[in-house]
């Protein structure tokens, strides 16, 4: 048996180090790497059995071509040669008739490796295809942070160990960032307190001393209410503000008077005395640390909400002490990804299609209409908002759809051509993280399963088929990774040796990084003159004309729609709709029965779970499952979500959704 180091390729802030145990070209088991500085040898339930994904009987093993009508899932196998020939001929026809912009790529984060994730961009730029604005995740969160902190790096999560008040705000850390629990435990042993601020009592509540339940989309107001009390009672750090903060006086004068605890209470649903208590405990903490999740950024006011919360540590001077601050995300910037994406291949003026609006674009875009859709490491039929529109688009008989996938997802079912994709142990890559500062290189551990090929290999074949002779398309993925490593920023000689050997390497932050504010003024910018709204204020979310907010948050057992191939995991995530007992009683609904959540965009069937963990006026479902897992097997959670965008940065608004709920007769839909 051989043990090889590798990295978890999924879209998760932890980016765990893995030890892959393999024998005879098969992965036998997968363990966490104890030498990884942040994840320290433990894994989540998904990757603890990654071998079940790698060797799943549901893997697609050969290229396939559609035989039945669109969406029927009826395919026959073909050779790679024939598949590539078919695709490139079809594209040449489309380009001749409609121009290359009629071809639209769709990718997001099936793999996070810098080379395999981003290499498709270079190909589609070179082709002159429509560009994709990949803003599905949390660009509004990034925008909010930048508006206050500029390009200041996010703090290392290990700061948590030295904090005495840890606030998990809009993050279910036990699902989406489980390894910070290690740092939280260390802090707790030293007496730290933990708060959870969420829209319902998530599993992370068990880590917390206090749980605060806010109305969806209201957190910006809550932050302003806390600031109102801090300023009013002079609980702020005046010296810090004087030296390091821009715009505190303007905030106090022009904004905070509108956000008394009483007025904020009507927005958030929290008692005014609770808001006062939050402010006084926040001020009293020596080194408060906010770990801000993305949940609250996925609203029509998401960027402004994050911007407002990001101001909080400045008022109490938390940045100046070890363990204090706020972490939105990290970025080591050690590698230059433009070596992979090749922005210089971009043809000027090619149109840009927003990923969140593909539902409309696939059906309605004109001049030229979308005639071909190429999907790789993404599952748009399940993960994009407004599923009914997306599926209607994918069902167009005149749309030529190619899906490069490992499994028969709801997207692959609608393909004209399916190409089999590798898992991360079958290809090489270079990884960095958005939740810590570790970087790592991974080499292939086993040969590709079946005839699977990695993203880079497929783009090389497509480039050859299209007659592109640029040197770029003739290199190997190892050469591309070598180039990124050669041109690294900030790695030492011994770190480079370590990277070569596939060891996890922690990029070091400068000593005074937390107090070096990389903004135009050099200060924390509560007042940012380059913003249309120079000061933060509360904006309302969109909502819908329906009675219940619809929170659709992650489960620990899936990662977006990945891992749906695993019965051992999907059997643990039965698709519940959680509802407060009073709301269920008012609607005469029983625990366990089938219900439908519905709004103007669609209807989805769930099993009802009546629970006090969810407040009145809110319903919750966890996980994005394939359609087959929902009662009725027709639609999944995103049939209810909307294509509307965030206030800034064109982000998704997955949680800014309302629904009504009705009982369903068993099997009587
Ligand atoms: N197990 C697992 N891990 C994952 C993922 C997964 O699907 N499963 N997804 C990965 C990806 S792509 C991402 S981007 C990250 C995202 O991970 P997080 O940053 O944790 O963000 P979300 O999962 O969107 O939402 C987190 C929490 O926000 C809460 N929330 C929703 N609206 C509000 C609000 O208005 N106010 C407050 N205070 N809370 C609110 C939700 O109830 C949820 O508990 O996780 C990654 N990790
Ligand atoms: N309702 C709702 N919807 C959401 C969210 C939510 O919280 N609620 N979260 C949103 C967020 S934050 C995000 S980031 C998006 C994520 O959306 P996506 O990035 O589309 O993520 P996944 O659902 O994980 O789908 C990735 C697919 O890539 C395939 N894959 C994995 N590795 C490879 C590879 O190397 N090559 C190829 N070709 N394929 C590969 C996998 O088999 C999988 O089917 O979803 C969004 N959708
Ligand atoms: S999904 Fe996240 S927690 Fe699980 S192994 Fe991967 S990086 Fe670690
Ligand atoms: Mo995401």
TrEMBL record:
Start and end of every 4Fe-4S Mo/W bis-MGD-type domain? 1-58
Enzyme nomenclature, EC number: 1.8.99.-
Keyword Oxidoreductase: yes or no?
yes
Sorted keywords for this record are: Iron, Iron-sulfur, Metal-binding, Molybdenum, Oxidoreductase
The coenzyme or cofactor needed here is: Mo-bis(molybdopterin guanine dinucleotide)
Family, according to the entry, reads as follows:
Belongs to the prokaryotic molybdopterin-containing oxidoreductase family.
Q: Could you identify this protein by its name?
A: Putative dimethyl sulfoxide reductase chain YnfE
Organism placement in taxonomy? unclassified sequences, metagenomes, ecological metagenomes
